[in-house]
Design a protein that fits this description.
Helix 2 packs across helix 3 and helix 4 runs parallel beside helix 5. The strands form 3 sheets. A 7-stranded mixed sheet has the order 7-6-5-8-9-11-10, with helices on both faces. A two-stranded antiparallel sheet has the order 1-2. It is α/β, with parallel strands linked by helices. It has 2 domains: 40 residues, no CATH class; 168 residues, Rossmann fold, CATH 3.40.50.150. The protein is built from 5 helices and 11 strands.
């Protein structure tokens, strides 16, 4: 909807029988096989969740979007802006952040502050590469979250995968499970069509800042919060 370790393939699938000639008992790939391997590795690097090496660029590349999972990564400006806000809210070393279905944000947070404590809750198991920072999350089953995550997060950022009341209500259950009961901050990134529901279900207000994605979306996206950001994020919309 949203960096760090490169995604390493578990294996490179090829012909079941080796066709590489042997020289001094060492296998040597044919030129065709070598070219295929280089193409495979280049593609993996291109689509992996790794920090860009382009000078001082703050851009972060993620695995390729999977439209079947309703995945749309944030633009660099959006990810940076939201990450800066989250880091501002984390005003103590004990602050923990939960990112629900927004891997782009997780990646930018870790890029901007490697020491920040962030948990990514995501359905796509490609993000298992983040190790203990990753928790499998199916929005249909918010009750299946690990008990150790209950009421553990001062800041929760959520980006529901679908623009429906049913999805928002179930994500709200996960938020209620994760967030600390008092003095906590909630940010929601979702479509404009969810404006009234965000207010009714979660008590959120729209901010002036308008999130953008790397892919062109037909739905206008908004950022909502449960606190007044003041001059940040464009402030609460009047």
């Amino acid at each position: 909807m949203e960096e760090q370790l490169e995604l390493n393939p578990n294996s490179v699938n090829g012909p079941s029988e080796s066709t590489a000639p042997l020289v001094d008992d060492e296998p040597v790939l044919s030129s065709h096989a070598l070219a295929a391997l280089k193409e495979f590795l280049a593609e993996q690097q291109s689509h992996s969740a790794t920090v860009s090496d382009a000078g001082d660029s703050e851009e972060v590349a993620l695995v390729s979007e999977d439209w079947r999972l309703s995945q749309f990564w944030y633009s660099s400006e959006t990810a940076t802006t939201v990450a800066e806000e989250v880091l501002t809210l984390c005003d103590s070393v004990d602050s923990r952040v939960a990112c629900i279905a927004c891997p782009t944000l997780y990646a930018y947070l870790k890029k901007m502050d490697p020491n920040v404590s962030v948990q990514l809750l995501e359905y796509d198991k490609r993000f298992e590469q983040y190790g203990s920072d990753y928790t499998f999350y199916d929005y249909n089953h918010p009750e299946e979250l690990p008990l150790e995550l209950k009421h553990s997060y001062k800041v929760v950022v959520a980006d529901p995968p679908y623009l429906s009341e049913e999805c928002l209500k179930k994500v709200a259950e996960a938020i209620s499970f994760l967030i600390k009961p008092r003095e906590s901050f909630l940010l929601l990134l979702t479509g404009e069509v969810q404006k009234e529901r965000a207010a009714e279900i979660l008590g959120l207000h729209p901010c002036g800042f308008r999130p953008q994605h790397t892919s062109k979306l037909g739905n206008e996206f908004r950022l909502f919060s449960n606190y007044d950001p003041g001059m940040r994020l464009g402030g609460w919309e009047k």
